[in-house]
Amino acid sequence: MDERELAFTPAWRQREMVATKQVSPVELTELYLRRIERLNPSLNAYLTVCADEALAAAREAEAKAVRGGDLPPLHGVPLSLKDLELTRGVRTTLGSLVFKDAVPDRDSVVVERVRAAGGIILGKSNTPEFGLSAVTENRLGGPCRNPWDTERTTGGSSGGAGAALAAGLCAVATGSDGGGSIRIPAALCGVFGIKPSQGRVPRAGGFGKPEPNQFAQSGPMSNNVRDAAILLQVLSGPDPRDPSPYMRVEPPDFVASLDQGVKGLRIGWSPDFGYGAVDPQVARTTHEAARLFERLGCTLEEAEIALDLEELHPHFWNIFTANDYAAYGDLLEERANDLTNYAREALERGRAVTGAQYAQSVRAVFQLRLYFKELMERYDLLLTPTTSIPAFRFDDRPRVIAGRKVHPFWGFYPYTFCTNMAGYPAASVPCGFHQGLPLGLHIVARMGDDALVLRAAAAFEEARPWAARRPDIA
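User: That's the sequence. What structure does it adopt?
Assistant: Structure tokens below.
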């Protein structure tokens, strides 16, 4: 098996190879570190590479594998962590110049669970400052570049994870998603990613004052669905330190249900969620992908959805920015010159949100959740494109899509942020290409039905495999 083939071998298979002594964790880790050294300078997928720590952990994992016995589910598997997760003893920047030299003395819950599962942490993947943009750019270096075309964006805010997976710079990755930040780069980079149900993966700790957790979830990104299911199993389950009131239950077995198929499911398809501007070819390609579910035994119909982007997004942004101001607002006074323009503008917006406006936006969230609850009484799944267009050039943020003016900051992801507001699980699965660039199919299920999202994605993956097609850079 050559280097490229081993780099793209599924993480679950790598773990089996480690357990049966076909490959050592040290060999795997060294392979990925070589690829990172060669490719990361042109991609900026990682903000921090912790080679010494990774090799030390790999040697410990190798010794444990040699001794035999039961091994945890990620044992010896090299992975990346989004740089919004605190990592004990490893630089954690949050994508911010303010924290460029910060080294935490504790791990986030996600990192604790990854370590306990035997994962080998290669480094911290690139993110926009505080995760506040759907394009991965910050003041710590150049933009994160898409392996399919390095003049184009990876999306964000988990853009580093998307680039690392697409280029074979890790076996599996963690991302986080507060408005589409796992699914957008998954779609633009041609990988898989799932935003779990709100509260499925606990959050605790963080620099600044940890923000409320109405919309955001950490979750897996991967080159195949099974790897994501295994990682989600590792990350899920309640933790007493998490203040979130949602999903305080033990998770189901996400892996066991992957092979159950989708026959008999009722599926609603929408090219625009009732309000989005979408490139016609993107709509055609994703609709064709959605129709595959009919051949798998599902019923598919166009869902009548009447949502208004111009009405919804301000409510989303009121809550999102006010929460971030509560966490990092002091930086406007103390370190404003070190902030990116978009982070400063977001914090200033959050500072300006009044109590009445925040309350009105919370009410809008409850109304949206009622709307989705009624909608999902008719369907088991909703399908849409993940993004309205494929990856765009850094200097060409979309302002017009399909002849309609859109906001350059959020107009290309009208489908994702509303599912964060609803709290529903949603994934992006690679489904085709437009102008040589990957597209994603967006799969949404009811609150708590993460296993069904994974099951549907696995059925789609089996019927239309994508993993063998990789960018030339990889």
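The chain has one domain: 3-463.
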